[in-house]
Amino acid sequence: MTPVERGHAVFQKYGCFQCHGPDGKGGVHNTNAKTAEQVPSLIYVADGYTKDELKKFIMTGERDIPRMNLAGPEPPHFMPSWGSVISSNELDDLPAFLFSLKPKGEKSDF
Fold first, then answer.
1. Position 42 in a domain
2. pLDDT tens digits along 70-81
3. Which domain holds residue 73?
């Protein structure tokens, strides 16, 4: 298997698709989240992170999701920390899959 295929298997194994969608396009409703009230899409993750930055983000997660309306409720979905769950080999492969989601024809530095 290639790193992209192994990364896709990791994405499935840990249920990332439940929030980010089977193809990483997001769409799960996240009330009052500043990200258009949805769990973010992953198809452009290559534009915002290096491989090492993405690995760190996956390991630490993000509990505090910015709210669209500061007076409104906390968004119910957040990025959990996977540092104590995911193996280092899995963590090496997951960014390869996530970077591969970028639409074809668009440059990526991965």
1. yes
2. 999 999 999 999
3. 3-100
